[in-house]
């Protein structure tokens, strides 16, 4: 094994030891790909993780003299402009580190950028006001799909959805009696142990249960 190969093997082993919970190695079309799940560094207990992504570094045969290709996939909470900012920074970092082992540094650069960008963006679709201007002092509601809403807007919407589902649930029980179970399941009108119904995100319609986040919006 050449000195360059030994250095590369040492880099990979160090990455596997340091990032064992987030790293994945695979060979694709003859090239080694090193992938990381990247999330921001949270500033304090209770802070929310508004963004995340998967960073894949595709290594050319000439690595590290030739920098890896940077591929960002499975991003959440990041619109095109912020993704472009991230990729531009990683490309610049890879050029500066050209000739030296850089995979760990690129992961850390991605994490630092996500930490900087860890805030909701765009508008709350329930009121059409910017998420940068909170409707009150509480952080926006972050759903499992990574869509965000102002807390008061979401609470009002949630309560309306729960009342509507409760009314439909009661009507089906009245109309169908003991035969209502199948129709209730078909319409997703079976409440959980707390009496709350599963609803879908207003943007993507991905279903979620009140137990999926810590905010107390279940009282209707």
UniProtKB/TrEMBL annotation:
The keyword Cytoplasm does not apply. SMART domains: RING, RWD. Keywords: Metal-binding, Zinc, Zinc-finger. Residues 124-205 form the RING-type domain. It comes from Symbiochloris irregularis. InterPro entries: RNF25, RWD_dom, UBQ-conjugating_enzyme/RWD, Znf_RING, Znf_RING/FYVE/PHD. This is RWD domain-containing protein. Signal peptide: none annotated.
